[in-house]
Amino acid sequence: MYNDKIYLTPQEILDKEFKIDARGYRPQEVDKYLDMVIRDYTEFIGIIKRNEKEMKDLREDNAKLKAEIRSLREQLLAASSNEGSGVNNVDLLKRISQLEKVVFGKYE
Fold first, then answer.
1. In this structure, what DSSP letter does residue 3 have?
2. Residue 19 to residues 23, 27, 33, 42, 59: CA-CA distances in angstroms?
3. What pTM, to 2 d.p., does this model score?
4. H helix or E strand, kind and range, residue 7
5. Minimal CA–CA distance to 33: which of 41, 43, 44?
6. Is residue 34 exposed (0-12), middle (13-18) or buried (19+ Cβ within 10 Å)?
7. How far is residue 33 from each of residues 6, 41, 44, 100, measured CA to CA in Å?
8. Cα distance between residue 6 and residue 41, in whole Å
9. Model confidence over 59-86: pLDDT tens digits?
10. Local confidence band at 88 (pLDDT 50, 70, 90 cut-offs)
11. Which of 9, 44, 14, 19 is nearest to 31 (CA)?
């Protein structure tokens, strides 16, 4: 993801050779500074890899949770519709019972 935006690797920084000029920088200072840059680059790469792994794990968890939510909603809808039809069935049974009483003369 970030690899296409990073131009140097820690190893490329380490292997870089500079031409020495009579009025150039002190090689020890340049080496010391580049060592710090290498250490930072290495740490940044580690951070990026950990973050990418964490993002991948979170996306997987998110997908699982969304699937679980869908499943629970379906179960809730099924339970609601069964509950509603249960009440309707009870009402129908009461009504049939009353009609039977009227038809068979056992109406109270």
1. T
2. 11, 10, 17, 25, 48
3. 0.56
4. none
5. 41
6. middle
7. 19, 12, 17, 98
8. 10
9. 999 999 998 898 888 887 877 776 655 5
10. low
11. 14
Instruction: Return d(Cα 56, Cα 58) in angstroms, integer.
Output: 5
Tokens of 8: 């140097």
Instruction: Return the higher-pLDDT residue of 40 and 27.
Output: 40
C-alpha span between 89 and 82 (Å, rounded):
10
- Higher-pLDDT residue of 11, 20: 11
Structure tokens at 11: 């190893």
Distances (CA, A) of 61 to 10, 13, 69: 33, 38, 12
- pLDDT surpassing 80 at residue 55: yes
Q: For residues 78, 80, 84 and 86, what is the CA-based torsion angle, rounded to 10 degrees?
A: 60
Structure tokens at 81: 């519709």
What DSSP string runs through 18-65? ----TT---HHHHHHHHHHHHHHHHHHHHHHHHHHHHHHHHHHHHHHH
Total count of residues recorded for the chain: 108
